[in-house]
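so the lab meeting is tmrw and i was supposed to have these ready like two days ago... anyway. pasting both below. for each one the top line is the aa sequence and the line under it is the structure tokens. i havent really looked at them closely yet so no promises
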Amino acid sequence: MVNSPRSARLCVSALLILLFAFSTVSCSKTSATVQTRRPDYAHDIIPPQASRITATVLAVLPPSVDGSDSPCAQHPCHARIRVDSVLGYGQGFSSALSTGDTLTVFFEYTLADTRTIFFDFQQHFPGLRPGDTFRALVYENRAEPVIGSGKKADRYTITAYERMILSK
């Protein structure tokens, strides 16, 4: 009875099931190991018309004087920055940024500490000064200025940033 065709088929089936189970377990361990080796920023998808950079603030430009109560009339929103490294591009970003490039950038939530301006924000930004290094997404604006307004549209905008602390 041990050498019957039915017992042979059962043994072959059991071996195939065990082989499949072991190969599945070994594959899942390999993929988990690969995922944990990625850099911190590698899992972040860069949105369209944006570039992820690290940069240094070279100069903070004075606030625009337009007589309004807007945050940019009371706090600086434009800065001259130097690109220290380009970490990636999103789809449709047409500029080719390089290390060492200098840009004039519009900071949507000002260069001041947002805790003193936007009290109800869930995420605050500490503010930036000349010499500060930061990481951010730079968005490229392709919108044309309004005809007759006399105002030039900002080419690059930063909404959020992370100030980097350099160890000496």
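ok protien two:
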Amino acid sequence: MAEHGSFLTDILTKISRRYAREGALRGAMKVGTGLAHDQLQPLRNFFGVDPIRISRNEEVRLHFDRLLQQAPEPFWVERIGEATGIPLRHRPQLSKDEQRKTVLDRLQLAFPLLRDLIRYLQEHPEELKRVLANSENETTKRCFQLAQTVQHLLGNTLPLTVSELGAQFFGNSKALRQGEYRALLLRWLKIYAQDAELSDNDYQLLENFHVYHDRLTVNAVLFGPVIYRKHGREFDWIYRLYEQGEAATLNWANLMDVETMSWLGRENDPPQLLCCENEAPFSQLVRQRPGDAVLFTSGFPNSAVCTIYRLLAPRASRCRHWGDSDPNGLRIASILHALFPLQLYRCDIETLKGCEQDLLPLTDRQKSAARAMLAPGGFPFQDELRFTLAQGWLEQEKWHPDQEK
């Protein structure tokens, strides 16, 4: 192939793919625009002058009808095959069902961790119709791009923007802002959404996987005698606010490149770290437990909350979480527990048993979510979840001081 030159070799390879797809040399094929002499001459030497036509805008096309006037198709099929070293063969296009099965088989081999997604696509054959392209290779490429995106997000803890995600996996920052790719990605992510209700909102669903419209909106609220080290310097403004009885709000720009977080003046007597799901109970903890550090999760913890928790939890005397005892509240606790072990606070099994008169019934959707969480997989707070499923759940605001242990 080298003797023909790299440009001619590329054109012959393109013709081979075209023949494999169509089974005939017909019509015309664009080979370039504004070609140089050392590109045009090998084309003319191989195909002859007449089949190579140049338009007014310098677009160069190879016309197969003129080519076949010089010699019959079998001659050119053999000649091109000899030049490339790969015989030309017509490969009939797979049916849509065959294409779908082939793509699913390839996905299953390439992404063994995405078993739930593969099962979903097998059970919903119409889903892949949305991504089927003109060729099997293009269809596979699209599915692999989407599957790679899902697999990345399942393990992601850092904030990303939709534009960054599109650029990284599709080579186009606009790919996931709207359109079919975005719709497919959202549907596939819902399979793994930890909160069924949250997954009904596209933006909240993406935030559940740390994908945001703007990273600077990723905030966390923290109260405690905290200092942190960044770029070789120490920052104590969180501690200064703590001295005034105020919580600090940190955005992602504050947290980027933070090396360590620690307790100022409490190295030998570290406080406990209390994580709190809702705002009113958080403010209550700040007032009532000034000796503790309190981290506001604001529902499901975002990237900023997770980052602070990872930095501070190992340095605390112990870590506890106070939240609702419904499936979502217990799941929030489990997310933090996976980062660093914690205990439940004011929503543990003993507290729940003492607040039976204040329990709220679960909806059918909540019951379904609770049962799914109890499936094999080692959910850390099974006692509380089983109690909630049987008796109902305790809202944070329903807790009262005489239940304090």
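from a quick look at the 2nd one: The chain has a mean pLDDT of 88. The radius of gyration is 31 Å. will dig more after coffe
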